[in-house]
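B., you asked whether I could sanity-check this one before it goes into the benchmark set. Here's the sequence:
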Amino acid sequence: MAGRFSSESKEKMSNNPRAKILVVDDDAMSRKILAQLLASAGYACSECEGGAQALQIIHAKLPSLLLLDFEMPELNGAEVLKRLRSDNDPAVAQIPVIMLTGHGSEESEVCCLQAGADDFVTKPINSAVLRARIETQLRLRSMRRQLERQNDELEEWRRNLERDLAAARLTQQSLIPQKAPVLPGWQVAACYRPVIQVGGDIYGWLPMKDGRILFWIADGTGHGAAAALLTTLAKLLFHHGSVEHDAPATVMETVNNDFRSIFGARSFMTAMCVALDPASGRATVVGAGHPPLLVVRHSGATESIASIAPPLGLIEHPEFTECTTNFESGDAFLLYTDGLFGGPKGERRRLTPECLEKMLDHCAPSADALLKGILTQAAPDNAKDALPDDMAAVAVRRAA
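And here's what the prediction gave me:
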C-alpha cells in the first residue's frame, strides 16, 4: 500500500492515549508508516500482515480499534470482518473497524460498509481524516460501553426492585385476610387484585366491643409500594379504632385524626365500613369519600348507600354520618374500591355505581357466587386490557 501523510501527522492525534490499535496490512512499508504515525500520536499500536494472524491476536488480546486493509491475500478484509461480526464473544463482534481501501468509488464504499466496517479511509491516507475517524469510532465505542454499563445498572436496579416488591407483596398478603370469618348464618367472600405486586387497597373485618363485626375497606392514594405502605397504616388504624370505640362513626373519626396527625393533609384515603350485628341483621354504614355501598335484596331490589364525609386525612373535623339498614335472609351487600370501575371486557369506558348495581345478581346462592358474578362482568381475569387501578371487593350475604 502506498500512501501519503500531511504535516498534521506530527500533531497529537488522540485524546485517549490508552487506546490500542491493531494495523492489519499485507504491505510491510504501509504497516510501518501507519504504526509510527499512530505511536507518535499517543496510541498503543501493534501490527500484523494477514487476516488469520489478526484473528488470533484479537482473540488473545482485544484491541480498542482495528485498521484493516480491504485487499489482502488469503483472508481479505471482508472475510475477516465476516468472522469478527459472527463471533460468539460480543466484545469481539462489536470491535470498531475502519477499513483501508485503495478505491475511492461509491461501490467500494458500499462494499466496505456492507462487509461490516464501521467506517473507511481511502488510500492515499490523509492523516486529518484518519485522526477524525479513529477518534469518532473510539468515542462511539466509549459511549456504547457506557450505555452497556448503564443498562447493566438498570437491570440490577430492576432485579432489586422486583425483590423488594416480592417482599412487600408477602408483607401485604399477611395483612389482607386470607380466609373469610366464620359467622353462623352469613357468607363472606373477598377479592384483591393489585395492578402490580402490591397495591393501595385493603380490607378486613374486626370484632367490636358490643359484639358486632366491623367490615371495612380502604383505598390509599397512588399505586405501588408507596400506596401499599398506606394499607399497612390503614389496618393498624382501623384495628386501634375498633378496639377503642363501639360506633363506626367514631372509629372513622379516630382513623381520620390519626391519619391526619401523621401526614398533615399531604395524603388521604377513602374508606367505608359496615358494623353488622350477625344476630339481628341490622347494619350501620359510614363512608368517607368512598364508592357507595351496594345492597342487593333477595326480592330483586337493589340499593346504594353513598359516602357523605370527605376522604380520610383531608380535613380536621369532618362529620361522619351513620346510615342504618337491615338484612333479611338472602340479602347481601358489596364493599369495593374504585378499581372495579375500570370497565368490562377491555372496554375503555369507566363504569359507574349505577352500572355495578345493575350487575348484582339477587338470585346468587352465595356471597362467593355474587362476587364472582359481578367480577366476571366488570373485571374478568381474561380481559384484553388490565384494570388501570388496584381493585378490592368484599361481598357479605345473609344465608337464605
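One thing to flag: The longest helix spans residues 127-175. Otherwise nothing jumped out at me.
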